[in-house]
Design brief:
The protein is mainly alpha-helical and 186 residues long. The chain has helices spanning 6-22, 29-36, 40-46, 50-76, 80-97, 106-112, 117-138, 144-168, 172-184. Helices cover 77% and strands 0% of the residues. It is elongated.
């Protein structure tokens, strides 16, 4: 039985954190390798497409993690407004713990949209997954078209608040959004 290679998971996790903090252009292959404690051969063994393929795997992993957290929050609450506010509160807490960690996909999405079609598509898929979580929850109490529109608005507002708070090194935008959720989802 082959032994599991921890380097793949380490590379994906380290890459995800670096992409979240620096974006795609702000990181190099050697940054990923150093952060993961992996050798160059390990990168190309697991990701023959190099940096772009590794970044795509990191975006996919982040998409799964955020989707699971959102689904858990929205499935656990009968009230979608309360679930949205709790999710935003968790974002505030995470951001207060480390203001370098905003959205795990946005820095790469912005950075790579013009230079890598595979990464643009990976980021778009991640955002769609998160919007789908909101939409499914909203459909419990709303018409499908209204739920879809409100899900897009909620995701846009969250992403915008994360960006603004990251640049201001505060949480005022997320907190304002949290307070506005009842009106936003009325």
């Amino acid at each position: 039985m082959p032994r599991p290679d921890r380097h793949r998971a380490d590379l994906v996790a380290a890459t995800g954190q670096l992409l979240r903090r620096r974006g795609y252009s702000g990181t190099s292959v050697s940054d990923f390798l150093q952060a993961a404690g992996a050798a160059n051969g390990s990168l190309y063994h697991h990701f023959p497409g190099g940096k772009e393929e590794l970044a795509g795997a990191a975006i996919e992993a982040a998409a799964e993690q955020v989707e699971a957290a959102l689904a858990s929050a929205f499935d656990a609450a009968d009230d979608v407004v309360v679930a949205a506010q709790r999710s935003i509160d968790a974002m505030v807490a995470a951001f207060e713990a480390d203001p370098r960690d905003g959205c795990p996909v946005a820095p790469t999405a912005i950075d790579a949209a013009g230079i890598s079609e595979p990464l643009r598509l990976a980021a778009a898929a991640a955002f769609a997954r998160w919007s789908d979580v909101f939409e499914r929850a909203l459909r419990r109490t709303r018409d499908a078209d209204v739920a879809a529109a409100q899900a897009r608005v909620l995701l846009s507002a969250i992403e915008g608040a994360l960006l603004l708070d990251r640049t201001s090194h505060g949480t005022a935008h997320l907190k304002a959004l949290r307070d506005a959720v009842p009106v936003l989802l009325a």
